[in-house]
Amino acid sequence: MAQTMVYLERADNLSFDEERIANAQILRGNVIFRHEEALMYCDSAYFYENTNSIDAFGHVRFVQGDTLQGFGDKLFYDGNTKLARLRRHVKMIHGRKQENPTILTTDSLNYDRAAGVAYYFHNGEVKDSLNTLTSVRGNYRPNTKQAVFSEEVVLVNPKFTLRSDTLLYNTDTKIANLISPTDIIYEKETDIRTSLGWYNTSNERSMLLDRSFIHHSNGRTLTGDTIYYDKHIGFGEVIGNMEMRDSAQQATLYGQYGQMWEENSIGFATDSALMVDWSDDDHTAYIHADTLYTREVPYPDSDSTYRRVQAHYGVRVYRDDMQMTCDSLVYLSSDSTMHLYSQPICWSENQQISADSMIVYIVNEAVDHAVGTGSAICVMQQTDEYFNQMSGKIVTAYLEEGEVKIVDMDGNALTVFYPKEKEGDYVGVNTTASSFIRMYVENQQVHHMRFTAETTGVLYPLDQVPAGGDRLALFFWADEVRPLDPMDVFRKVKFKKQQ
Fold first, then answer.
1. What is the pLDDT of residue 498?
2. Measured distance CA(239)–CA(259) in Å, rounded
3. Are 289 and 313 in contact (CB under 8 A)?
4. 0.90 cut: is pTM over it?
């Protein structure tokens, strides 16, 4: 590095005192030094011309170009290394006054002109037009406007406070690069926790990596491997292991990709999408589909809301009291109903119920009854070969403590039923036709049935059942696609009714 000389521009008084300060020019009053494009002002100084250095005191001012100034009570400057050391009541101002300059305040500051970096090592503050940052140690590069802060870092913004151990920040772009555990707090509103990413403090947009977490005061949280978050508009996009939790509604939405809108509490999930309703520990519901969508819907003329969940394509549901499959599903918390469309099938114990569309009613967090409309059929498995069957236009199954107790079949009701002797042996196949049939169930077996007066029926001995007489036209058995446990909802199955 080529060395240049420090020049004394002016002083009111110059003297020497070799016994007290050897090899020094003692300068007093309106002292000015120049080194290259930098000027240094002070009340008094020792100028060591042989070492090309200065010790300056009183009202010290360091000026470089027209955009950088440093102030302090003392300045120690080495012209050979271009290192300026400012001490006590130090302030560095970068930028023109009319442009809202960046102001660095500390008690001890070193400015390495050769490297173009100013650094402090015992508590400092950097303030720009938007934010105020404090830390134990830090450095600032005027050429790039890039700052690095470490130890007890605090960024104060009019809207939020950021706390971290290490932070990279640009005073021009107002972007904070997050490289250590960081907490961004919007008081009484939102808490953001991450350890890697960036946060644009001017527009509140961020990219949060390394399994980050967003918590809202209303009890909703968003977690994911990568989160793009726009706080200003209330939007989050997640890639990888999304978890969207709503403690108020007691439900969690999962997926490998998802989106969140804070307005109306909208959530979207796809790629291994799963909704877990944990409002009742005894009957947790697991809903899987290709796409899941949830939102809060306001009640008419009310400030309160209810939750609407939509599931599309390949819907599979597991509850301990009922399992379901269909192509699309809508859940409404307003009346605790699940609406199933396109080949819906419901299972409870050894019974399978299906129709063109179905509604499952939940009362006190348990399935109370289910209603199927159009091409309705209820099948109860007795053995590998024997199935009790009921079909008609509308089927209604009533449950108690997770078991089907009554099944009503209305409209052109048909049955295929395997009655038993007291000893438990099957006596034949009973077929009936009626306008309405009610079946009572105990211990997963038909206890008895009630028919309308105009019912007709035939009992065939087991060895005299006509071909096809043991199956109703709508009969099918789809136990192979039934969800068996919470994680089995992810099992890929293909099923088409073959009647």
1. 56
2. 9
3. yes
4. no
